[in-house]
Amino acid sequence: MTTTCGKYRKPLKDPRSIGRGYGPICWRSILREANESDFTFTYRIEGNETPVLIITDLDWGGKSVTNNIEVILKSIADADGLDIYSLQEAIEAVRRERGAA
Questions:
Q1: What average pLDDT is seen over the chain?
Q2: In this structure, are residues 30 and 15 in contact, taking their beta carbons and an 8 Å threshold?
Q3: Domain-embedded: residue 92
């Protein structure tokens, strides 16, 4: 966890903001950006305790999931009460995929 905002690097004091890694103003901005994409998601734990997150881009004319993945992952983490940093590996995997393309 971090005690500074992930966008502006300002100190965070509220426990919920610390958990998200963003202050309330930046968080509202992130949620607005997430709403620019049309997607559904499923989160489950596989038999071997491996977390699996499946995101489906509905392709209804909004921003693509691939181009908005970081914001979408953050909004999913908040909506489902997941630790935002538990999704960091998924964000890094998308970055690697983008670099390979």
A1: 78
A2: no
A3: yes
Quickly list DSSP for 30-92. HHHHHTTS-EEEEEEE-TTS-EEEEEEE--SSS--TGGGHHHHHHHHHHHHT--GGGGHHHHH
Residue 18 lies in a domain: no
The two three-digit tokens of residue 17, written as one number: 């903001």
Task: Give the CA count within 13 Å in the CB-facing half-sphere of 34.
Answer: 20
Which helix or strand (DSSP H or E) is residue 53 part of?
Answer: strand 51-57
As given in the structure block, the two tokens for residue 64 are 């693509």
Query: What domain range is 55 assigned to?
Result: 38-100
Q: Whole-prediction pTM value?
A: 0.54
